[in-house]
Amino acid sequence: MKALSQKRRHPLAAVILLAIALLLTGGLYAVATATNEAKADTSVSYTAQDAEEGQKLFIANCATCHGTNAEGTADGPALIGVGAAAVDFQVGTGRMPMQMQGTQAQVKPGQFNEEQTHQLAAYVASLGAGPTIPEAEFTDVSQGDAANGAKVFLANCAMCHNAAGVGGALTRGKFAPSLMGVSEKHIYEAMETGPQGMPVFNDANITPEEKRDVITYLKSQEVNSSPGGFALGSLGPVAEGLLIWTLGLGIVLVFTIWLTSRSA
After folding, report:
1. pLDDT of 73-123, one tens digit each?
2. Digit-coded pLDDT (tens) for 124-133
3. Which of 15, 22, 126, 219 could covalently link to 51 via disulfide, CB atoms 3.0 to 4.6 Å apart?
4. CB of 92 within 8 A of CB of 117?
5. What are phi and psi of 168, to 5 degrees?
6. 10 in a labelled binding site
7. Is 161 annotated as contributing to ligand binding?
8. What is the homologous superfamily of the domain 48-127 according to CATH?
9. Is 65 annotated as a binding residue?
């Protein structure tokens, strides 16, 4: 009996084991959370003062369409959860604020400077998690692969933006804008946020490295010298056929008039 009593577990043993398990679980969760936050971190940081100043700018310039608390109105969508990248793209390219309601926001000189754009992005980012402004390494074309970027672009983007990235017409008065001369950061943000009628290409669709490759390809297109002759806007065989048809028909008409005048 004495031996059996010595082998019995202490009444607090289960409690101690449970406490140890909770400590281990909490520690693992803290490590995992820190790792995820490190992965989600960007080269751009925001302060509480940035968000406060951004809120003032928002109320003075954006609340009419997007609502006082960015909840959206009949004239503009809600901005809660769209992220800093969407604000940086729309405001940085001058698309927002819009001068007037229309089918599609137009590119124009920006109304806000870089610091004010940063503050607006900070305020919207504080309203809910969303795509962040990309890190510098993912917009560095010196690290990109233009050949792979061409494959990704042709498979996902060329049907709207043209294989050369010069843009094209869409339905209902919309259009895919030219990507020539657009900054690397704004191209990346457009893929992340899907502005206008563009689909969203998150990291599950196109990885950050592939996005960088796409940017590298587009930047290589900007310096393409068109060794084959006139580029004709790089609009493809339709533009080329139209030019040949127009010139050919014109030459035939001129030659016909010349023959008629000689016979007369």
Report:
1. 999 999 999 999 999 999 999 999 988 888 889 999 999 999 999 999 999
2. 999 999 999 9
3. 126
4. yes
5. -175, 165
6. no
7. yes
8. Cytochrome c-like domain (1.10.760.10)
9. yes
